[in-house]
Fold this sequence. Notes:
Layout: H1 71-86, H2 90-100, H3 105-132, H4 142-156, H5 162-176, H6 179-193, H7 197-204, H8 211-217, H9 222-234, H10 242-249, E1 255-259, H11 267-271, E2 275-276, E3 283-286, E4 302-304, H12 307-318, E5 350-353, H13 360-372, E6 375-380, H14 383-393, E7 401-405, H15 411-414, E8 419-425, H16 440-443, H17 448-466, E9 467-477, H18 486-495, E10 499-502, H19 504-511, H20 533-536, E11 543-544, H21 547-550, E12 556-562
Parallel strand pairs: 5-6, 5-8, 6-7, 8-9
Antiparallel strand pairs: 1-3, 1-4, 2-3, 9-12, 10-12, 11-12
Helix pairs in contact: 1-2, 1-3, 1-4, 3-4, 3-7, 4-5, 4-6, 5-6, 8-9, 12-13, 12-19
The structure holds S-adenosylmethionine (SAM).
S-adenosylmethionine binds at residues 309, 355-361, 379-382, 385, 407-409, 425, 427.
Amino acid sequence: MSKHTNRRAGRSGDANRDRPAGGSGSTGRPSGPRRQDNRDASGRTRNRGRSGQGRRYSASAPSQRSRRADPARLVAYEVVRAVHAEDAYANLVLPPRLQRRRLDRRDAGFATELTYGTLRGIGLYDAVLAECVDRPLAELDPPVLDALRLGAHQLLGMRVPAHAALDATVALVREQIGAGPSGFVNAVLRRVSERDREEWTETVAPASGTDDALAVRYSHPAWIVRALRQALVAHGADAASLPALLEADNAAPVLNLVALPGLGELSPVLEAGAEPSPIGPDAALYSGGDAARLPGVEAGTVRVQDVGSQLTARALAAVPLSAPGDTAAGQDAAPAGHAGRPGPDGPSEHWLDLCAGPGGKAALLGALAAQRGARLTANEVSEHRARLVEHALTPVPSGVWSVRHGDGRQVGADQPGAFDRILVDAPCTGLGALRRRPESRWRRTAADLVELTDLQAQLLDSAVAALAPGGVLAYVTCSPHPAETIIQVQDLLHRHDGLEQLDAKAALQAVAAGPLYLPAITSDAAPGRGGPERVADAGRLTAQLWPHEHATDAMFLALFRARRT
Ligand SMILES: C[S@@+](CC[C@H](N)C(=O)[O-])C[C@H]1O[C@@H](n2cnc3c(N)ncnc32)[C@H](O)[C@@H]1O
C-alpha cells in the first residue's frame, strides 16, 4: 500500500458515507437518509429540495452560510453534471449557460477550460482520486464525484493555487450538494493537493508503462490507446509519436476559420488578431476567444471549421473528372485549373454531399460550386441537422444548392449516376476529433465500430451507384481507425471493380497552402485484406492528417473515380 493509500479519505462501512477519514476537515454530517435512489425519472440527479428524491443535506453549515459558489465554477459543475446525468453534450450545453450567468470573457474562458479539461481528464483524475478515497469511486454520490473531478482539474490541470481550488470547490459543494459532503470533498482535495501533476502521474501511471498505463497517464480509454497505436502504424506514421497524439487530444484546439471562397474576406479577420493558417488556403487560426465577434462570422461568410476538414472538401472539388474518351486517367489527382466549370455546350456539374449535417463542408463546397457554375445537393438523414445544413448554406447563392432530407443509403437507388462529385463524410467513431468533443472518448466503445463500419459501407455503395461515369468520390472520416479507413477502402475496391483509386496525398497537398507531412505507407505496415494489388495496396494512396502533426483533426481522405467503360 502506498504512502497515500493509508491516508485515504472516507472509510468503508463509515456510517456517514461521505465523511473523510480521521474526521479532519469534516464540516458536518449528512442530514438526510443515508442512501436513496438519487435520480429522478429523467435521470437527473437531485440532492436537494424534494422528499424521496435522493440524499438531502443541509444547504450549509451555519458558520459558512456566506460562502457561495462562484459563477464560473458553478457553470462548469452544471455542465459536467448534465453530461453525466443526462448524456448531454458539453459543447451544446456550455454556451447557453455561459450566457445565462452573464460571465465576462475571462470567467467564460475559465469555465470553459474547467469544464472541458475536467471531462477530458477524468481517466487520470479518477485514478488519482481512487488513491485518496478508501472506497470504489462508483460508490460515491455522482455529484460529489464530479465536484472532486473539478477540484482535481483545478489542482492538477490548471495550476489554480491549492487554497483557491479547495475553498471554491468546497463552497460549490456546500451550496449545490450540502454541508456534509463539503467536508469530505475538502479532505479528499487536500490529499490531492499534496502532490503535483507529475508526481501523481508517476504514481498512478509510470512513464515506462504499457498501453494501459498510457491510457491513465493521458486519460484515454485503453481500447482507444490501442486503436490509435494501430492507426499510426497503419497510416505510416511513427508509433513512437503516440504520446504526442494522446497529449494533443487533451489540448484545447485553437479556433480554425475559413473565409468562404468568393463570399468571405479573410483580411478583416487577420486584422482582428487571427493568424493565417500555414496549411489552409483562406484559413486562419484564432486564440482570442469568442469567434462570433469576428467580421463575417455572424453572416456565415467566415466559418469556424477545422483546417483538415477544409482541405478534404477542397481536394474533392479540385480533382479532375475524367472526360468522355479519356481512358488513361490513372491516379492523377492534380487539380485541373478549371475543374467543375461548365463546358461550352455541356451541362454544369452536379455535386452531392451525402452526409452533410451540420453543414461545415457543405458550406465550403457550396461556395466552391458557386464559383465553378456547379450545383450542390446536400443530403442529411436527421431533420434537425438538415435544418443546420440549410442555415450553413444561407450565404451561398440560393440557385446553387438544395438540401435533401433522407437516408443517404437510398440516394444511389433514387438518383443513379446523377452526380459528378460526391462527398461521403461518413458517421464514424470520431477518434480523430477527441480534443473537440471532450466527453466522447468515454462514451464510445469498440462495439460501436461494427455498426458504424457497416453503415459506412452502405453509404459508400450508395454513393458509387449515384456517381456519374468519370465522376469523383471522396471518402472522409474524422477517425484514423484502420477499420473505418484503410480496411473500409480495401473492402470498397473489392466490391467495385469500376472504381479507380486516386492519389489522395497528392490531391491534399495540391490544395494546401503549405507543405504537408504525409508519410508513405510501407506494405508491411498496411492492415491486410489481401487480394489483388489495387485492393491490397489501397492504403498507399490514402491520406491521413493528425492533431499532433498538422494541428488539425485526424481527418482521413480517400479518392476514387468511376471508370468510363
Ligand atoms: C461526420 S458527420 C458529417 C459532417 C459534415 N460533413 C460537416 O462537415 O459538417 C456525419 C453526418 O452523417 C449523418 N448521417 C448518419 N447516418 C446517415 C444516413 N444514413 N444518411 C445520411 N446521413 C447520415 C449524421 O446525422 C451526421 O450529420
